[in-house]
Amino acid sequence: MTKPLEGIRVIDLTQYLAGPQATLFLAGLGAEVIRVNNPHAKDPVADSPPYAGAKGVSFRKQTEDDIGVAYLKRARNKKAITLDIKSPRGLDIFYELADETDVLVENFGPGVPERLKIDYPTLKSRKPDLVYCSISGYGATGPDSKLKGYDAVIQAASGLMNLTGFPDGPPVKAGSALGDSLGGTFALGGIMAALFHRERTGEGQLVDISMADCIFSLVFDEPMDCYEALGLPERMGNRIMRLSPFNSYETKDGWLIIATGTDAHWQDLLRAVGRDDLIGDARYADMSGRLTNNAEIDAIVSEWTREHETNDAIRHLRQFDVICGPVRNIRDILAWPHMHDRGMIETLEHPALGTLPGVHAQGFPIKLSESPGGYERPAPLIGQHNDEIFGGLLGMTESEIDGLRAKGVI
Fold first, then answer.
1. Given the DSSP bridges, would you call strands 79-82 and 103-106 parallel, antiparallel or unpaired?
2. Residues annotated catalytic, as ranges
3. Of 148, 141, 106, whose CA–CA distance to 123 is shortest?
4. For the whole model, what pTM was predicted?
5. What percent of the chain has pLDDT above 70?
6. Residue 305 · residue 251 · CB < 8 Å
7. Which fold would CATH assign to domain 9-218+343-406?
8. CATH class, 238-250+255-326 region
9. Which residue, among 31, 22, 49, 52, has the nearest Cα to 371 in the 3D structure?
């Protein structure tokens, strides 16, 4: 079965996570993704710890073959070339490559594409049907568009950090780089929409992705602007302000989450914890009453969960159709049969060494019944596909390629 994006060529000018996340998904869907590295600089992810190699995982390179774990995950299914776009000849070659490309993805700092002469207006004048995706902290327009932004800065700016944590604690960033990963995921959606538009009209376009926009568009589903009027704290831990009970609860050996969304859910929970006597209690009969008395609700639930081990509690609660689940750590997840059955836990491959024992990677999350995607090839070595792309795609001779290499253009 062919993948949905087979035949689509992508220039990948991205670094770190937001951009590589988008191009990783494109590669998993079958696109030919060509990473472009500067031949005179190290890759900031491939050459960053933790490293993985023949001697295991470490914070310092133990062998010359060691490569950053993040790069090995994010560059799967991609090809890799080196090209000095800052040199006149390198820029000309880049333009030739862009002419043969459907999609370009970049997450340079503000103003960099313009300085390199690879910005959207420049490339559009050569190739009007190019889909050009730019991922940045604050977007291409607006008074803050020239600001640089890392993930934690964007989580703070977009409101997520102020929502995360407990009422009596400081603001806390999410445990993973959600600003980057959500930016990359939204970029995938934008690119797919732009390709669909191109299929209909023949017209390319700029896909402008702001990481701050992406996070805010999701967190503002919550009525944050109404919290003060409702007498609610900005940070509520693991609660959801609209629902009760909805929280994490301690058990004898860990934690579990219980989530109720209706009066019927609450009644199921009461039966499960042996508190049928409260089913008709007017204080808790509807959601408004439970929200008003949320501290009492949490105390009732916690009294029961603390007397049970996590797995036993979950099995019992599910018999009463209570929506609940364990708080898993990574060891639990790696042992979770469901994730293995879904193909979401893979061994991590090194391009020179093969399978790396004890190191895992996430599988492909978009499940398609007729044209499934996935990651079949390991991350490439930097410049691994120079001969294939410059010779096979652009038609250069071996001597031309050797000459470019000798001059440092590739």
1. unpaired
2. 180
3. 106
4. 0.95
5. 100
6. yes
7. Rossmann fold (3.40.50)
8. alpha beta
9. 31
